Amino acid sequence: MSAADSNPRSALAQVIAVMPRDMARLFQGLGDDLLHELEEIRLRAGQPLELCLRQRSAFVAEGGELTSSPHRGVRVSADELAQVLQRLTQFSRYAVEEDARHGYVTLPGGHRVGIAGRAVVEAGRVRAFRHVTSLNVRISRDHPGAASAILPVLYDRVSRRPLSALIVSPPQCGKTTLVRDVARRFSYGDLAPDHPGLKVVVIDERSEIAGSVDGIPQFDLGPRADVLDGCPKAEGMMMAIRSLSPHVVVTDEIGRMEDAEAVLEASLAGVAVVATAHAASLDAWRRRPWMERLFASHAFDRYVVLSRRRGPGTVEAVLDADGRPLRRGGAEAR
Amino acid sequence: MKVVGAALVMFACTLLGFRVARGYRERPKALRQLLQALIELQSEIEYHATPMPQALRAVGTRLGGWCGGWLVEMAKVLTEPAHAPEIALQSVSLASATNGSLRDEDAEPFLRLLRSIAVADRDHLQQPFLAARADLEAAIQAAQEEANQGARLWQYLGALAGVFIVLLLL
């Protein structure tokens, strides 16, 4: 166990490991209650080190105490930022090239690090980032039981089969945490007392669901989960259907045409898909290119809309395949 | 007694000569092992896009011996947060790993390669490998020529020094 551990220090260990020594020391001085609330670490060249907590943000002052004054915060130098970036990429930019092109790198343990700087563009597409000026480390944590509130609606008791579902929310509302727990619960067979576990294939393009290190999942996904780590979603879904005979395919952040086609293909093949998408509501998601077609084809049986209204993982609504509410408002997934 | 003493001096000097000669012969062999490691590292990195520490560890484990140990040690220091990577890499001594067959400066083509590929994208990996390979091949050739001349010379020198000392003593 690493990031999967409920101990906030061990969840942060992989993040601290990429920090220069002085910066790492500042984090070691922070209290456990604060680390529990920590959601993002923002490093900007020449600016104070910022921590985004559940309900507020603060700067880290000399000695490790938090301050709201940017002038008192410890400044991150360009050299320190370069060191962090080197360690993030494991001195191997070639190995994270594809992710970095999309503006992020994933750390062992599933922590995603967003990159900002000067983009190098080739043929109209971002090829790389040089002169990186900001990094945003999003802390990934495991919350076993996060899916308890929605699990009953993801299973058809009559046909005894899992249902396809799309988890919709803006960023930082707990989508990945939720699908991770769904995968785990399906895999363990927590659906019904007499129901065996299901074969789950996790297509983990960004290594966030399983938090794999060298291909080995760091989060517990149960005994019946297979992980295609770093595999493009659409290609991974087709590979899984052809060769891994899954009951359920779990993946993160669908949005491209090929993702939509693969979800459709899976639903026609009788494989349930549990996926996530960035959108404020189901209607907003439907307005995205290719997604209306997916909605109209009833590829998903359920839509779960999340928010942060009562903290990350608040279930705002559960909708059926036609977008009609099955349940509305306020249940907390965590 | 004198004869025994003379024989002992002869033996010691000849042995010393042979030891120095062996050092000359070991050097191209050790450099060839370094080249072999580089070739394996190239396929690990170019084909599998394995991150550097894992690639060094995998090749090191496969190769074994002093070269394997040296690569694994470099992988280890790269994953330790204590130092900046450039300083960390230089702290792994090639001279100690090879018991003096190679000097620390002999690692420079290898270290230069690691520094170059750390910031290279996949399309630009081949060039640093070719450059490092060329540097190592040149070093092997020079070491081989040096070994051809030096090894024999030191063998003779050892024996002759023994004879000279014996003559002086007698």
TrEMBL record, chain A:
Top-level taxon: Bacteria
Keyword field: ATP-binding, Nucleotide-binding
Segments forming domain AAA+ ATPase: 161-310
Keyword ATP-binding among UniProt keywords: yes
Cited InterPro entries: AAA+_ATPase, P-loop_NTPase, Spore_III_AA, Spore_III_AA_AAA+_ATPase
Signal peptide: none
Keyword field contains DNA repair: no
NCBIfam families given in the database record: spore_III_AA
PANTHER family attached to this UniProt entry: KINASE-RELATED, P-LOOP CONTAINING NUCLEOSIDE TRIPHOSPHATE HYDROLASES SUPERFAMILY PROTEIN
Entry protein name: Stage III sporulation protein AA
Species in which this protein is naturally found: Alicyclobacillus sendaiensis PA2
UniProt gene name: spoIIIAA
UniProtKB/TrEMBL annotation, chain B:
Annotated organism of origin: Alicyclobacillus sendaiensis PA2
Membrane-spanning residues: 153-169
Highest taxon listed in the record's lineage: Bacteria
Name of protein: Stage III sporulation protein AB
Keyword field: Membrane, Transmembrane, Transmembrane helix
InterPro entries assigned to the protein according to its UniProt record, in alphabetical order: Spore_III_AB (IPR014198)
